[in-house]
Design brief:
CATH topology of the largest domain: Glucose Permease (Domain IIA)
Pfam family, one: Peptidase_M23
Largest sheet: 10 strands, antiparallel
Structural class: alpha+beta
GO molecular function: metalloendopeptidase activity
Shape: elongated
Protein name: Membrane proteins related to metalloendopeptidases
Helix content: 25-40%
InterPro entries: Cell_wall_metabolism_enzyme, Dup_hybrid_motif, LysM, LysM_dom_sf, M23ase_b-sheet_dom
Distance between the termini: 120 Å
CATH architecture of the largest domain: Distorted Sandwich
CATH superfamily of the largest domain: Glucose Permease (Domain IIA)
Keywords: Membrane, Transmembrane, Transmembrane helix
CATH class of the largest domain: Mainly Beta
């Protein structure tokens, strides 16, 4: 029997490659078999063929099971990385997306970290909650009556200008929310109080509104008149329905002469056409 010192010592060099895909697959088994055979020579053949074959089988089995578990973990991680989302298109709102997929608006805002749904731009990815019962439904109709917030109020309104010509309606306009209606009229056309009440504000309004008037009609209902050429009333005054309060202009961010008219109930904008009477 040769001693261990008689076997040549082989040192790997840089650039040496062990070729063959089979060796890569059975690498743990091959290495263990070689080590056991070498040990049997060194110890004088104490390791039997049967024990060697058993150890080789165990090493091969562990290598196969390890590769299977790695593949399954990669597949699982791939599935977890998939996310459901909807790309916001022109004319769509967060409310429509929520109804389309059968989820709540508050849930979409929470998942996508949206504070104000009016700031969501076209092309934004709206991620959906991971639920089995989330199903894509048909798109809701645009002019659906139940989609608008229409609370009851005791206030009876009239049109703020005579022979009104609506140039822009309430709702989504150029992917942004339009909180009122625009009534086209020539420059200097009289603007009337839509209902009796107290002048809550008369002056230069927020950015884009220009000269603006706010009338408080009751504890929860107000009306707004914007882009005025001139305001003819002061804060604190009480006006009757039909009282002349301003003239039509294009102050602020306006492309033409018109009055921007809003009705708000409980501080929320509502569609004025739902509360106005017949055009006069």
């Amino acid at each position: 029997m040769r001693s261990s010192s008689e076997f040549p010592k082989i040192k790997p060099r840089s650039g040496d490659v062990i070729s063959g895909g089979v060796f890569n697959y059975f690498a743990p088994a091959v290495l263990l078999a070689v080590s056991i055979v070498m040990a049997s020579f060194i110890t004088g053949g104490c390791a039997s063929k049967e024990s060697i074959s058993k150890r080789v089988y165990k090493a091969d089995h562990s290598a196969r099971s390890g590769s299977r578990s790695a593949k399954s973990s990669r597949k699982a991680s791939g599935k977890r990385s998939l996310k459901r989302y909807h790309v916001l298109k022109r004319g769509e709102t967060l409310y429509r997306v929520a109804r389309r997929y059968g989820v709540s608006v508050s849930e979409l805002k929470r998942i996508n970290k949206i504070r104000d749904d009016r700031d969501v731009k076209i092309g934004t990815r709206i991620y959906l909650p991971k639920k089995k019962n989330v199903r894509k439904t048909s798109r809701p109709r645009r002019n659906r009556k139940t989609s608008a917030y229409t609370p009851r109020t005791r206030v009876r309104f009239i049109w703020p200008v005579k022979k009104p010509d609506i140039s822009s309606r309430f709702g989504i306009r150029s992917s942004k929310k339009h909180d009122g209606i625009d009534i086209r009229a020539p420059r200097g056309t009289p603007i009337y109080a839509a209902a009796r009440g107290k002048i809550l504000f008369s002056g230069k309004g927020p950015s884009g509104y220009g000269n603006m008037i706010i009338i408080k009609h009751d504890k929860r209902t107000i009306s707004i008149y914007a882009h005025n050429r001139r305001n003819l009333v002061r804060e604190g005054e009480f006006v009757k329905q039909g009282h002349k309060i301003a003239t039509v202009g294009r102050t602020g961010r306006a492309t033409g002469y018109h009055v921007h008219f809003e009705i708000r109930v409980n501080r929320k904008p509502v569609n004025p056409e739902k509360y106005l009477g017949k055009r006069r």
